[in-house]
Design a protein that fits this description.
RsmE_MTase_dom, about 230 residues, Alpha/beta knot, rRNA (uridine-N3-)-methyltransferase activity, elongated, Ribosomal Protein L25, Chain P, alpha/beta, 2 domains, about 30% helix, 8-stranded parallel β-sheet, transferase, 6-stranded mixed β-sheet, 5 helices, about 30% strand
């Protein structure tokens, strides 16, 4: 079934507009067809009624209920020096099942906080677009940036991915009873030894991906995908 982004306009009606309306027309959706539509109030099964000016109008059939996946994974991603790489990270970890992504400013990362904040609307849009493709129900939350030094162990399991030092192999993790995971991933070139020690002192567990060293965007994707499937 086709999936679209829309908004509730009145009563049991949902409107599809803008770029989503173009997709609706490309898909040649006809009156009477059923669609899944994500609005500000959640997912709905809708029946497409037709076009009205610059809108595609749908009638809500029922709300689509779903159970959130556990454990929830928060990815603390150090912003890549080439900031556009963050787009690949967002699309990848959204499809892999991350719940939340927090851009992190570290010694070797991209450090201009103002520019990062300006990118947030674009990153949130990518999160929504990837949601339509991969079948997940809740969009990846893209949060405001934080400094690495401000991170704390707030989850049931707190990990820092670091292939440059000794650490626990990801295949050896045991997630029984774990409801939330924090995963910190460094920028290109990894963390400084001082940063890794700081995180370990706070209670983060060093984690390794083997047998190879991955590019930043691949490391985040692979780690999140494996953690999602260890349950």
């Amino acid at each position: 079934m086709e999936r679209f982004l829309g908004k509730k306009i009145y009563g049991q009606k949902v409107a599809i507009e803008g770029q989503e309306l173009k997709h609706l027309k490309v898909k040649r959706i006809k009156a009477g067809e059923l669609l899944e539509v994500l609005t500000q109030e959640g997912w709905f099964l809708c029946k497409f009624e037709g076009f009205q000016k610059d809108l595609g109008i749908c009638q809500i059939v029922e709300r689509i209920e779903y159970t959130p996946r556990f454990p929830t994974i928060t990815l603390y991603q150090c912003t890549p020096v080439h900031l556009k790489t963050m787009e690949d990270v967002i699309v990848g970890v959204s499809q892999a099942g991350a719940h939340r992504l927090v851009p992190v400013i570290s010694e070797r990362s991209f450090r201009d906080k103002k520019t990062i904040l300006e990118k947030l609307p674009r990153w949130e849009k990518l999160s929504l677009e990837s949601l339509k493709q991969c079948g997940r129900r809740e969009p990846l939350i893209v949060d405001h940036p934080v400094e690495l030094s401000k991170l704390e162990t707030t989850s049931d399991l707190n990990l820092v991915l670091d292939n440059y030092q000794e650490g626990l192999k990801i295949k050896d993790l045991r997630l029984e009873g774990v409801k939330s995971i924090s995963l910190v991933v460094g920028p290109e070139g990894g963390f400084s030894s001082k940063e890794v020690q700081m995180l370990k002192d706070k209670g983060f567990i060093a984690l390794r991906l083997e047998p190879y060293t991955y590019r930043l965007e691949a490391a985040s994707l692979v780690a999140v995908a494996i953690l999602t499937n260890l349950v």
